[in-house]
């Protein structure tokens, strides 16, 4: 490959880590569910949450209903607010993340952040400087497609105006790297 014109970069376990223990502890307790029931419900709603078909509050209401209860008024919104607060509080950028993005930018390489995520990820990226360092945010909840679907990579490439064969993709998941490689993007798996 000649010098890349663009780098597409994953978020979770690539640029930053999140200790989700708070989400899996506090949220089910506040909802009156066991952690096991909460995790099972979350797995069911996760695809719709990741493609923007459900809001976080809508997802939490659905989890509670799937466990045979009706959420009290305002509970789903409270849970969504708490989830956002916990995400922002427990996320940590890896020490080299911003420097990596700055180095790319100083070399003239365009940057797209490509993540399977819910809407709170945008706030997270804005709060820690990642959004500012990127040219495009290709967030699954906004794009309507999850990695490894071609649509999310194409969205990022189109936003950058760069062809696939002039881009590199960095992610911690082998299947997401394979999805990018199928489009002709050079994929690099990072293991943190």
Give an overview in words.
There is one protein chain. The chain is elongated. The strands form two sheets. The chain has a five-stranded parallel beta sheet with strand order 5-4-1-6-7, with helices on both faces. The chain has a two-stranded antiparallel sheet with strand order 2-3. The mean pLDDT is 96. It has helices at 21-31, 35-50, 56-66, 75-90, 97-106, 120-127, 130-133, 140-143, 150-160, 174-182, and strands spanning 6-9, 16-18, 91-93, 110-115, 136-139, 167-171, 186-189. The chain starts with 5 loop residues before the first strand and ends with a strand. The protein has ten helices and seven strands. Helix 1 (21-31) runs antiparallel to helix 4 (75-90). With 192 residues, the chain is of the alpha/beta class.
What is this entry, summarized?
The chain is an alpha/beta fold. The chain is built from ten helices and seven strands.
Low-confidence stretches: none
| Helical fraction | 40-55%
Structural class: alpha/beta
Number of strands: 7
Mean pLDDT: 96
β content, as a range? 15-25%
How far apart the termini lie comes to 25 Å
* SS summary, helix count: 10
| Main beta-sheet annotation | 5 strands, parallel
User: H/E element string?
Assistant: EEHHHHEHEHHEHHEHE
Shape: elongated
If you compute it from the alpha carbons, what radius of gyration comes out, rounded to the nearest whole angstrom? 18 Å
Strand order of the largest sheet: 5-4-1-6-7
